[in-house]
Amino acid sequence: MTELDFGAFLGRRGGAYWRLARMQAPIGIWLLMWPGYWAVALAGPPLTEAVRLLALFLIGAAAMRAAGCVYNDIVDRDFDRRVARTRQRPLASGEIGLVPAILFMIALSLTGLVVLLQLDRLAIVIGLVSLLPIAIYPFMKRLTWWPQAWLGITFNWGALVGWAAATGELAAPAIALYLAGIFWTLGYDTIYAHQDKEDDALIGVKSSALALGDRTRPWLYAFYALTALLLLLAAALAGKSWPSYPLLALAAGQLAWQASRVEFDDPASCLKWFKSNHAFAALVFLGFAAG
Questions:
Q1: Cα separation of 283 and 257, whole Å?
Q2: CB atoms within 10 A of CB 99
Q3: H or E element: which one contains 79?
Q4: Who contacts 194 (Cβ-Cβ below 8 Å, separation ≥6)?
Q5: Mean pLDDT (the chain, rounded)
Q6: Cα(25)–Cα(160) distance, rounded to whole angstroms?
């Protein structure tokens, strides 16, 4: 059963909440999940503990990505009504009211909190600190041309939480991994933002796609080159052995392929190459695990 089919299976009301949580588009779950997975693979805890942490990060990513989508839609509901791609979202269209959406967001957030409380104290504290950048994120498109960078700060927090959960401390490999994730997100979300650049320009919403315009491709190469270099640095700082590096090189090649092939004026191309970051992230995870 496809994601779309499952939403229909829930009925009209249930399907509206399914779409409000963006569960029909699970790529966001994977992109939020992978930095935590990377950190666990990079730290290399015992197998049973690794499996436990990976399961928790999957559940946590699903809950918190859904909560984040609801929060973003609450803040942006007036903007969403004016953008072709988003005007049919349940809040923007009036299919779901504001109060039920807030209650739904609280329930999802509490699910994420329950998952977080299964980790050790340092990981819990780091996870709770992430609430501040998460709360600020939806407003950044009104304040800066670089909301994609702020998304990188929030979406890769799992790298810090995952390392702390696996090791009980923060260390240089986790910082390098976190910075790699920020540049990675800046790249892939700039690709994503090119889908909405015409509507964004009309309604006054800022984005890196609008800031970079025709210069996006060389900047995308730069963002992805920094991503690859920082991932290599994280592996070296963590003492990974040689099997890590061919897979990390293959992952870097996937980023270069994205940057060379994406057509920024074609929304379908942007969405395709944005989604391909799931494959890139899987290669990085395998690289860290192999080492």
A1: 14
A2: 8
A3: helix 47-80
A4: 209, 216, 264, 265, 267, 270
A5: 91
A6: 25
Instruction: Report d(CA 249, CA 12) in Å as an integer.
Output: 46
Distance CA 10, CA 204 (A): 36
Give pTM, 2 decimals. 0.91
CA dihedral of 74, 79, 83, 89, whole degrees rounded to 10: 20
Domain count, the chain: 1
Nearest to 250 by CA among 285, 284, 288, 291: 284
Task: Say how far apart CA 235 and CA 266 lie, in whole Å.
Answer: 36
pLDDT digits (tens, 9 = 90+) for 246-271: 999 999 999 999 999 999 999 999 99
Q: Are 290 and 220 in contact (CB under 8 A)?
A: no
- CA-based torsion, 2, 4, 5, 11: positive or negative: positive
Q: Domain range for residue 108?
A: 3-290
Q: Any idea what the CATH number is for the domain that residue 203 is in?
A: 1.10.357.140
Among 163, 166, 168, 218, residue whose Cα is nearest residue 190: 218
Encoding tokens for residue 142?
């009104």
